[in-house]
TrEMBL record:
UniProt organism field: Paenibacillus anaericanus
PANTHER family with a match to the protein in the record: ARABINOSE-BINDING PROTEIN-RELATED, DIACETYLCHITOBIOSE BINDING PROTEIN DASA
Protein name, UniProt field: Extracellular solute-binding protein
Statement: the UniProt record of this protein carries the keyword Signal: yes
CDD domains for this protein: PBP2_AlgQ_like_1
InterPro entries on file: Bact_solute-bd_prot1 (IPR050490)
Keyword Signal in annotation: yes
Record's keyword terms, sorted: Signal
Annotated signal peptide: 1-27
Highest taxon above the source species: Bacteria
Length: 559
């Protein structure tokens, strides 16, 4: 669907942001010494080169980028470099473009008994592969061949990432790691409008309501027209995991409602967050705001959810810390007088900022049972993770950077596996390092290359505001987005379950449709607030109760 493609585009933007994730200093095997020295696997099992070439067949997700003539998805500067430093030949057993097509290919591979040697799978696919005994136990291989860098990144999750890929004390997959900073939803506001109308920064729901009212009634842009928007919106209402633009997750979280997450209720029972009574309060508030015009009356009809922001008509929207990368860079390029700031708002009645968190991991690199060299898959992961985090000491990395710059792509697009690993607090680490450098507590020259780039962009933006919009988006995202996250105490809530149960296969699509339509229709006034109670009853009757029993059993058995 078109909306899915838009979110994929945003994912690519976020992937670019995360390419700047903090790189940690300190040596591990193969990270120091002669740059282009060839070390045998016998001397360095982590980064050493095989004496004899090893072949691994993989399932590959085709990127959107285009290669130069003569290059292919499995034969290009990135793949050739990784082969040179490992002597591992990667062959694409099959390729698929896009998440949906790739997931279908994986499902077909599982059903057809024709698995590639390695591939990235979802949580549900991992469980199915374990059930069918089709993938390798990687416990001893990871202990022996996993790099200290990757192990440290997994440790940053307090063991949760590896635990989610471990069953009966056996490690069946190597998980990705979600960045903590990507979970909270912040409130981005036109600071220049606040200043013009002499309004204070918001904390409560009432503060946001007052600001929205002023933004639609008091001509904050000074053009003499009543054409500005208080708060924008997203027709899906909430995202439930990682935020995108205009979702109302923060409003629901303020009421301690966590739609689209499985949570523990006040009586200690597992419930689906969207049917909790607290949702009714959030929906009533949003319906009132919509009726009074505080929320964009066209939010459900906008071609793109960020259109009002880019057009310069919006005064507030909810979004992630990286919103300056998109859509704000576009909006501010069109109106350089606009100033956007992020706020941890609204707070709940006790003055706390409450937010749901994304799953620690949701994808796993698995190895076909019977494959002769499971360690080769781990060695590839070591190699491109070190490369991605700016720790590869080889001089030839510069050529890869030239290749990426020439085509306007990220080198990660051609790694053998779409699995990025980083410290869970990578963004906060970078912010802290930049802050130390700005305050003279750290020599900027000691920063890793990527962090130093953020530092330089930050300084340049202060000296010459909005002269370089590429630098502007990084500087603003870190100063105001990450700055708020780093300085705000949060009550973080995680879902107790992220998988799929047996009954979900038959009922979940209809239940989600019922939920999405009910929430949206209540907000825009097509349904009364009492429709929420009817939705809850229908949700339970149409399979929700059975799914809840299944989820409860799975969670209880996992303890």
């Amino acid at each position: 669907m078109k909306l899915t493609k838009l979110f994929l585009s945003l994912s690519l933007i976020l992937a670019f942001v995360l390419s700047l994730s903090a790189c940690q200093s300190g040596a591990e095997s193969g990270e120091e010494g002669s740059l282009d020295e060839i070390v045998s696997i016998q001397d360095d099992p982590i980064y050493g080169v095989y004496d004899n070439q090893v072949v691994v067949r993989v399932g590959f997700m085709i990127p959107d980028s285009k290669l130069m003539a003569g290059d292919t998805n499995d034969n290009n500067p990135v793949t050739r470099y990784l082969e040179e430093i490992t002597n591992i030949k990667v062959i694409h057993a099959w390729e698929a473009k896009g998440d949906e097509a790739y997931a279908q290919k994986v499902d077909l591979a599982i059903d057809s008994e024709d698995l590639p040697d390695a591939m990235v799978v979802t949580r549900n696919q991992l469980m199915e592969l374990i059930k069918q005994d089709k993938i390798e136990n990687l416990t001893t291989f990871f202990e022996q061949y996993g790099s200290e860098l990757i192990k440290e990144m997994y440790d940053s999750t307090q063991g949760v990432a590896l635990a989610e890929a471990t069953f009966n004390h056996k490690l069946y997959g190597l998980p990705n790691v979600a960045i903590n900073a990507d979970s909270p939803t912040l409130l981005w506001i036109r600071q220049d409008w606040l200043d013009r109308l002499n309004l204070q920064a918001p904390q409560s729901l009432e503060d946001i309501e007052e600001i929205a009212k002023a933004f639609i009634e008091r001509d904050p842009d000074g053009d003499g027209k009543m054409d500005t928007i208080g708060l924008t919106g997203y027709k899906g209402v909430v995202y439930g995991t990682k935020p995108q633009m205009n979702g109302y997750d923060a409003i629901f979280n303020t009421y301690h409602a966590f739609p689209k997450n499985w949570v523990i209720d006040h009586e200690g029972n597992i419930i689906y967050g969207s049917i909790a009574p607290e949702n009714k309060e959030a929906l009533a508030k949003l319906a009132d705001w919509y009726k009074r015009g505080l929320i964009d009356k066209q939010f459900a009809l906008n071609k793109e959810t960020w259109d009002p922001i880019i057009a310069g008509r919006a005064g507030m929207f909810f979004g992630p810390w990286w919103a300056p990368y998109w859509p704000l860079v576009k909006a501010v390029s069109g109106d350089t007088k606009s100033e956007w700031r992020a706020f941890a708002a609204p707070l709940d009645v006790e003055g706390k900022f409450v937010t749901h968190m994304a799953p620690v991991t949701d994808r796993y690199l698995v190895v076909r049972k019977g494959y002769e060299h499971p360690e080769a898959v781990i060695k590839l992961l070591n190699a491109f993770t070190r490369l991605e985090r700016g720790l590869d000491p080889n001089k030839k990395v510069a050529k890869l950077e030239e290749f990426a710059a020439q085509l306007g792509i990220q080198t990660r697009a051609y790694y053998p596996f779409d699995l990025l690993i980083d410290y869970s607090d990578a963004i906060e680490k970078r912010y802290a390092a930049v802050q130390q450098a700005l305050h003279g507590k750290l020599d900027p020259e000691t920063l890793d290359a990527n962090t130093r780039q953020i530092y330089n962009q930050w300084v340049a933006e202060k000296e010459n505001p909005k002269k370089d919009m590429e630098g502007w988006k990084s500087a603003i995202a870190y100063e105001y987005g990450v700055g708020i996250l780093a300085s705000t105490p949060m009550e973080q809530v995680r879902s107790v379950y992220y998988g799929t149960t047996l009954s979900m296969n038959d009922n979940w699509a209809n239940l989600e449709k019922l939920e999405n339509e009910t929430f949206l229709n209540i907000i825009v006034g097509d349904l009364p607030i009492s429709a929420f109670d009817e939705f809850v009853a229908d949700w339970k009757r149409l399979g929700g109760d059975q799914i809840t029993r299944e989820v409860t059993k799975i969670v209880e058995n996992s303890k």
